[in-house]
């Protein structure tokens, strides 16, 4: 049995723990594990007609190679955001730009190219029996596309945002929350010393769970999430009240990178920035900082946590889930179960069809977990909720 393993999208602590366990348990079963470098780009850029090309894109994994990788963050296999089914022309590897695969792919309605036929040729040339794919919605979505083309695929949910449907937990989420809480508390010292309003921007493009849970645990004054557009004037009033009520005279706000102001107020207060690439929108954290500063006349700072949330070693929870998702994935390979994603549901390890994952989305339960008027976490009841409240 030849197993291919790849990681797509952003890196996350806990990926290496998952890769290590796939390799070590796979070896016990007599499976051969091949690492595909740089996500889907590894299969796209691999040239089956050039034997020398293999070492650049394929890494044969054994126990000794992965023995210590669980102690580090990131991904041994590297990663990319390439989507072989939706490629811009400049993303196509040079050796394919005049190939028969490209001519067969044609120009799609989106103006991009679908080179899945070449990916299938690469999988066949590498004699891969099954793919184990670690990633978020985009990576798993393409895995489902390959499944429809006859490839055996098992997906492992991995994202700092914890927004893959069907699993209460995705690899990387625990470390993201842990880091966010730590940095929010560290920023309190400077905020209090200078009597500032501090805005901390965290990951979360389409859902606010990372922001919501971090805010809940760190006890911030306000939390702004993508699911609820906010009124900057109302927020400014709240923050003045929060600051006045704090003996140290400061206020803390956490904001998801995907949060947004209501209606036209985004244009009225935020505007745009110009750089060498032309007109560019500024990050929501910085725009909110400028808006609140203008409305209140207060000293307001913004600290984006960004890659600090995903850097460094995984916490214990991401190690545990990384190990156990890998254990379950190899177990499913043995049982010849594929076309599924491993998952945690209500504290229990399980799996569900890829069609169910791709056809749905996750959002914060606003009725149970959030105060829409006050812009802050509000846990109305945790009875019957999973550990991370989704």
Strand content: 15-25%
In what order do the strands lie side by side in the largest sheet? 3-2-1-4-5-12-13
The averaged pLDDT comes out at 91
- The percent range for helix content is 25-40%
Mass-distribution shape: elongated
- Total count of helical runs of at least 4 residues: 15
Most strands sheet: 7 strands, mixed
Distance between the termini: 37 Å
Question: What is this entry, summarized?
Answer:
This protein has helices at 15-28, 40-45, 54-57, 63-66, 100-105, 116-125, 137-148, 173-194, 209-218, 232-245, 265-269, 284-296, 316-334, 354-358, 366-369; strands spanning 2-7, 32-36, 58-61, 130-135, 153-157, 197-202, 222-224, 251-256, 273-275, 278-280, 300-304, 340-345, 348-353, 370-371, 376-377. With 390 residues, the protein is an alpha/beta fold. Helix 7 links the parallel strand 4 and strand 5.
What topology emerges from the helices and strands here?
Layout lengths: L1 E6 L7 H14 L3 E5 L3 H6 L8 H4 E4 L1 H4 L33 H6 L10 H10 L4 E6 L1 H12 L4 E5 L15 H22 L2 E6 L6 H10 L3 E3 L7 H14 L5 E6 L8 H5 L3 E3 L2 E3 L3 H13 L3 E5 L11 H19 L5 E6 L2 E6 H5 L7 H4 E2 L4 E2 L13
Parallel strand pairs: 1-2, 1-4, 4-5, 5-12, 6-8, 6-11, 7-8
Antiparallel strand pairs: 2-3, 9-10, 12-13, 14-15
Task: Give an overview of the whole structure.
It is a single chain. The protein has 390 residues and is an alpha/beta fold. It has 2 domains: 217 residues, Rossmann fold; 146 residues, Rossmann fold (3-Layer(aba) Sandwich). It is 38% helix and 17% strand. It contains 15 helices and 15 strands. The strands form 4 sheets. A 7-stranded mixed beta sheet has the order 3-2-1-4-5-12-13, sandwiched between helices. The protein has a 4-stranded parallel beta sheet with strand order 7-8-6-11, sandwiched between helices. Helix 1 packs parallel to helix 13, helix 8 packs across helix 9 and helix 10 crosses helix 12. The longest helix has 22 residues. It is elongated.
């Amino acid at each position: 049995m030849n197993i291919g393993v790849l990681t797509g999208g952003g890196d996350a602590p806990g990926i290496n723990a998952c890769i290590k366990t796939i390799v070590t348990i796979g070896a016990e079963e007599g499976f051969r594990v091949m690492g595909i470098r740089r996500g889907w780009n590894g299969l796209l850029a691999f040239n089956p007609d050039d034997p020398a090309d293999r070492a650049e894109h394929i890494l044969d994994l054994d126990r000794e190679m992965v023995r210590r990788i669980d102690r580090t963050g990131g991904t041994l296999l590297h990663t990319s955001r390439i989507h072989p089914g939706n490629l811009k022309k400049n993303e196509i590897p040079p050796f394919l730009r005049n190939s028969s695969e490209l001519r067969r792919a044609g120009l799609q309605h989106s103006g991009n190219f679908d080179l899945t036929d070449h990916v299938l040729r690469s999988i066949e040339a590498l004699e891969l029996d099954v793919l184990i794919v670690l990633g978020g919605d985009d990576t798993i979505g393409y895995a489902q596309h390959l499944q429809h083309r006859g490839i055996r695929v098992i997906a492992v949910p991995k994202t700092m945002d914890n927004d893959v449907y069907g699993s209460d937990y995705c690899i990387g989420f625990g470390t993201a929350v842990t880091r966010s809480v730590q940095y929010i508390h560290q920023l309190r010292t400077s905020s209090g010393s200078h009597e500032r309003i501090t805005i901390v921007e965290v990951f979360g493009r389409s859902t606010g769970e990372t922001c919501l849970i971090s805010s809940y645990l760190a006890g911030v004054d306000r939390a702004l999430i993508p699911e609820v557009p906010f009124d900057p004037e109302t927020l400014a009033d709240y923050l003045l009240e929060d600051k006045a009520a704090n003996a140290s005279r400061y206020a803390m706000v956490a904001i998801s990178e995907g949060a947004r102001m209501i209606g036209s107020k985004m244009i009225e207060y935020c505007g745009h920035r110009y750089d060498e690439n032309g007109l560019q929108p500024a990050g929501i954290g910085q725009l909110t900082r400028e808006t609140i500063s203008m409305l209140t006349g207060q000293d307001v700072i913004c600290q984006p946590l960004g890659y600090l949330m995903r850097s460094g070693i995984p916490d214990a929870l991401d190690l545990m889930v990384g190990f156990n998702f890998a254990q379950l994935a190899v177990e499913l390979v043995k049982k010849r179960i594929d076309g599924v994603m491993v998952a945690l549901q209500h504290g229990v390890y399980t799996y569900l069809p890829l069609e169910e994952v791709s056809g749905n989305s996750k959002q914060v339960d606003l009725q149970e977990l959030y105060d829409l008027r006050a812009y802050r976490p509000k846990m109305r009841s945790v009875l019957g909720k999973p550990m991370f409240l989704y």
